[in-house]
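User: Teach me something about this protein's shape.
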Amino acid sequence: MQLAERMNRLGTESAFDVLAKAKQLEAKGRNIIHLEIGQPDFPTPINICEAAFRAMKDGYTGYGPAEGLLEFREVVAEHISTTRGIEIHPDEVVVTPGAKPIIFFALLALVNEGDEVIYPDPGFPIYESVINFVGAKGIPLPLREEVGFRFHLGDLVDAISDRTRLLILNSPQNPTGGILQKDELEAIAELANHHDFYILSDEVYSHILYEGNHESILRFPGMKERTILIDCHSKTYSMTGWRLGYGVIPKPLVNQFVRLMINSNSCTCSFTQIAGIEALKGSQDFVDRMVAEFKRRRDAVVDGLNAIAGITCLKPAGAFYAFPNVQQIPLSCEALADYLLEEAGVSLLAGTAFGKFGDGYLRISYANSLENIQEALERIQVAIGKL
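Assistant: First, the predicted structure itself:
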């Protein structure tokens, strides 16, 4: 079959490939500990599920508005206004089935072939994939371990050119757990205003933060007019399979995003949006308990990794990933990830799954029980001791 040339430019998420390989080993009777997939291991809170059941019975099972239900967009606007410290109107919210469509829509609506898009590396692999797919030129912005997996402002200045159209930010960050500081965001905002480029701010882990408060670039002068904010319910409320995300969009772009929704998804599931209202308006005790448990696991993972010869690991400030440095081990990070799966039954990801600057690292998701995490750490230590 002859495919369109653009399909050769479309990447994937290695987490799903590694998960499939791990499942094959399990089918052969192997015991595998899964630390590869970025999905909370907590069930969706029952009050959210019950809200969805009620909505189904109340008839929220047909097509809805392409931009999302007004009642959900009103709640989202209120939530973003409160958490980001800037007034947002419901007409500036576009609801999508998960957060990924906002990445696609932003690049399709704003970026021409040959335009440059700066993106974090190591970073969520879909950024680079879609940049390549639309024919733009991706400019990787290295995240440096020595500054807590943030980037040097000088590296960003050097990456900007007269072809820069968009800068992608992600804080808290996948795969490193790093966060951007307020003064850094302020400096980035000044650069965006001066050089006239847009910001795509991926904030899906904004509620999974272990110290301090979440800072968003949206609140700085001039940023509401040039920032597309991404958020979703997947991580915060353990609703990955519900496919409920949204973008806060500059008003001149809203109609373009709605047109893209009409041409791709028609609409986002209505009863899921009603459940999403309950998630935002109901008790947040679940979120507090989940983040507290993730923090407990984070500390165990980081302490355990740093106790293994040849591995060092910074303590992530947010999300639920550790990004240990394995450069002292005499295997490439890809070979080491394969070795740990085959030898130790621990499924995790090579840092290069997230870009070339992830070389020499692994990504470990601690969205698993503390008992399994401790067992995985013991297996890793034994396996590395055999090298």
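Now, about its shape. The radius of gyration is 21 Å. The chain has two domains: 5-43+285-385, 61-281. If you'd like, I can walk through any region in more detail.
User: That's plenty for now, thanks!
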